[in-house]
Request: fold
Amino acid sequence: MFGVSGNHEYYSDDALAWLDHWETLGVRTLRNEHVTLTRGADSIDIAGVYDWTAPAPHDADLDAALDGRDPERFVLLAAHQPRQVLEAADLGVDLQLSGHTHGGQMWPLGVFVPLSNPSVSGLDRFDDTTLYTSLGVGAWGPPVRIATTAGNHDPRTRQRQRVAVTPAGHCPTYAARCTPVTVGRAATRSAGVPSKTIRPPSWPAPGPRSMIQSAWAMTAW
Reply:
């Protein structure tokens, strides 16, 4: 399992102490770095960055996270906040998994969350980068959700399953680069999502599909 820091790790105590504790629980924390996972002849890179708002010297550094990797290899980026996606698109990231927004969590916060985030929930494309933003299972402040739901998503999407739906106007602040993806029971490829993003057909279980699921688990909080 892989994880990256979120913004709340910096609200109390030392953020690195939290990440070090995760390591004792079996969570490999990615701190502006990447790892290459290989199953048979197939490999993917999983990169992770510190939170977008992390203070120095723990600033999110995507250049450092991607440094030294093969640009021809698929790369999944774990970044707590979806705001990382514009830089990710510039640097050729294939898939970014994020959380942070809680889908707005409660009215009227849901009105303002889209103004500062490129995505609130679901599947979007920014240039050639696919972004999936989870609703998450936790809450910020009071443990209440109003006009939104919690969600712990399994990224092992298959053609026979429903794929996330992003409503039109979902990312107004970043509209110039955002292409909302709206799909139902269609193949992911028809949504413009590279098939390797969701289900590489040549990778047997428990290969990179389970790798992606593990990376997702700690990003979506």
Observations:
- Residues 157-169, 182-221 have pLDDT under 50 and may be disordered.
- The helical segments are 15-24, 62-66, 85-90, 109-116, 195-198, 208-219.
- The radius of gyration is 16 Å.
